[in-house]
Amino acid sequence: MKAAIFACSTALALTACDKGPEIREENASVAEVANKVADAGGATNFVRPGRWESTVTIEEMSIPGMPAEASREMRGMQGQEQTSVSCLTEAEAKRPREDFFAGNNKSCRYDRFTMADGKIDAVMKCSNEGGTQTMTMQGNYSPTTYNMTMTMQGEGAASAGMAMKMRVDARHRGQCTGDEGA
Fold first, then answer.
1. Rounded CA gap, 25 and 33, in Å?
2. pTM
3. The pLDDT of residue 179
4. Does 161 fall in a domain?
5. Pfam families recorded for this chain (predicted)?
6. Segment 17-61, tens digit of pLDDT
């Protein structure tokens, strides 16, 4: 589950883009999508560099078979906002690395990835250790903000019935200050 959540959250950073080029991919690897995003940016920044503040709200979470105490803790996380701050450098903005989109998880693949006209719509599947997670990402973006709803559904022995829905709201806050991620 941790790898799937990381894959979702890192894919979010790409949505902080201009409404310029259009990217449409089907049955594509994470590397293929990363290259398309980087190529579409050309000599300019496709993702705005600088300080970004992101707020993640877990709206729903279900993990069948979880012990009662852990289940109570998970329910307690629902509705709570978690804010993080990150710094995207100029170099990262011009040419994002493959792991920018799905971490180090090489088992992820996009069924579809569409980014155009201020909207993003993607479905990514990741397989690992007896299970598959399907992540759906839909939202809106502008050069300085993005809003995304993400769902994750687990299948297979390791993650059967696991489901999560979260919302991410982010804003560009200017230049990096050096205390991001601290």
1. 7
2. 0.74
3. 86
4. yes
5. DUF3617
6. 444 568 899 999 888 887 787 777 654 555 688 998 999 998 988
Q: Are 23 and 141 in contact (CB under 8 A)?
A: no
Domain assignment of residue 135, yes or no: yes
- Domain span at residue 117 reads 2-172
Q: Is residue 179 part of a domain?
A: no
CB 137 within 8 A of CB 148: yes
When divided into structural domains, the chain yields a total of: 1
Tell me which residue of 130, 132, 168 sits closest to 152, measured CA to CA. Answer: 132
* Closest to 103 in 3D by CA, of 89, 82, 124: 124
Q: Give percent above pLDDT 90 in the chain.
A: 26
Kindly report, residue by residue over 133-156, the tens digit of the pLDDT.
899 999 998 778 889 999 999 887
